[in-house]
TIGR02679 family protein
Amino acid sequence: MNRAEEAAAFFRSEPGFRRLFVEMKRKYESLGRVGGVVSLASFSENEREVIAAFFGRDVSRVSLPAFEQQLERTRFACVGLIELLERYFGEPLVPKKEQRQAVEKERERFFGHLAHEHPWLEDICGQRFIQAAYEANREELAAAIRLAGAALRRLPLGSYERLPLFAQRIAGDPHAFDLSTLPGKVLLSALQATVPGEWDVTSVESVNELLQSVGLLREDILNFATCANLLAETKKGPHPVFTAAVEANSALNAPLRDVLSLIRAYPANGGIVYVVENAGVFSTLLDTHAPLVCTNGQMNLATMRLLDLLAASGAKLHYSGDFDPEGLKMADRFLERYSSAAVLWRYSVDDYFAATPSVHLPAERLAKLASVASAPLQPVKEAMAKTEKAGYQEAIIGRLLRDIKS
């Protein structure tokens, strides 16, 4: 046993030194040098007695340089404090700064190696969920990145494929790219970074559009467009279900699977399609035999694809929704997406007050009005901000009916 090992064994044999050595180790790691002071205020009486015996006097605190100096007066004079602490704990002492540098160097090595294989990783590796996954399990993250990379190499697809079937083909697991999984999140972020366009991964419709842009469908049956009195065509000719629904004046829930097969859609009569937010209003207006689309709140992918076709046919899309911040925001997005084809329907200040706004809007909902940017919506936005009340589409159903019938 050399002198350093002998010193470590000596101090280890007296439990009263344990706490002091732990604190001195922390001080060194924090400062990166032999410095600083350890207070003994919270030490036990036995611990203070052992330390006092080492110094030959009572002490209320211990500086690291003083301990090292006292050590030189013992038979362990040739042993420095750093060497003693390393022998005592059985591991090298590394200052916190060097520890952080080593951690960052390893992080850079990890992501650099993977980015060499998958260049898109450089654009997303700083995202919080990826950094959290790195801290939790870097092997699992590496596997997720490589799996997402394998998927990206096969995208975009030549034709549409359902996401579970794509996942089964690529990963052997139909749920591998579910958006709640790590590979699914990585794939979505990678698509956001590599597919041209402005994609908001916090928005369901934006996520669905992003996936659809590369040929992936999350859900093509339960994702449907509610409509009435519209005609449509596929490459084979008129779509018989749309035609039959018009003849019966029936509401039609057209799944995305069918909407994606359409090459054209247009109103069965006239040049206007009335787009409403709420199903109850849609059902009431159905008796007029007017061309209708119901968004059921936020537009899903099937509804947007159908409206895209209607706008392309030259139809004017008259949009009516609720008089609340969320409703105005949906109207704002509708105007932005359909521009010259879109017409606000009953969104004046007079219409707002005709809806007898009475539901109080708390500050957090009113704050949403700030993002409503379309000029035609500013008057009603200002009126709503002033009254702090919401009104609803159902209250002006009479006005909507008169517009259609006139």
